[in-house]
């Protein structure tokens, strides 16, 4: 198994133009994603909270997501999608 490559990720506040609000995170991509999903970083480095502290995460290829939407199924819940067909999916 190849060791995880390490990167330096830098995040900054949306309205900040100075480095004062910047955060530097040293880790590999897999580690960064795991720490975001499990909320193990000191604070959320993302502008949204959709991925922060999620117990269950999964990868869903765009092709599979589109196929489920075409069938009228919400790809993230597996339940019938009440908005199916309203926005031109599957056309």
Structure in words:
The chain is of the alpha+beta class and 91 residues long. The chain folds into 2 domains: 1-44, no CATH class; 58-91, no CATH class. 20% of the residues lie in helices and 11% in strands. It contains 2 helices and 2 strands, in the order ββαα. A two-stranded antiparallel ribbon has the order 1-2. The longest helix is centred in the middle third of the chain and has 9 residues, at 29-37.
Record the strand order, biggest sheet.
Answer: 1-2
Q: Report the end-to-end length measured between terminal Cα atoms.
A: 43 Å
Order of helices and strands: EEHH
Structural class: alpha+beta
Q: Please provide the count of β strands.
A: 2
| Computed Rg | 18 Å
Q: Regions with pLDDT < 50 over 5+ consecutive residues?
A: 14-20
Major beta-sheet overview: 2 strands, antiparallel
Number of domains: 2
Mean pLDDT: 77
Concise structural overview:
By secondary structure, the chain is an alpha+beta fold. The chain contains 2 helices and 2 strands, in the order ββαα.
Question: Which keywords apply here?
Answer:
single chain; 91 residues; alpha+beta; two-stranded antiparallel ribbon; 20% helix
């Amino acid at each position: 198994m190849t060791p995880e490559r390490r990167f330096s990720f830098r995040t900054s506040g949306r309205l900040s133009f100075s480095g004062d609000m910047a955060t530097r995170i040293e880790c590999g991509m897999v580690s960064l994603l795991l720490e975001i999903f499990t909320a193990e970083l000191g604070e959320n480095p993302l502008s949204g909270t959709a991925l922060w502290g999620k117990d269950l995460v999964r990868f869903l290829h765009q092709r599979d997501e589109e196929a489920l939407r075409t069938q009228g199924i919400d790809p993230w819940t597996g339940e019938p999608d009440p908005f199916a067909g309203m926005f031109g999916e599957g056309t």
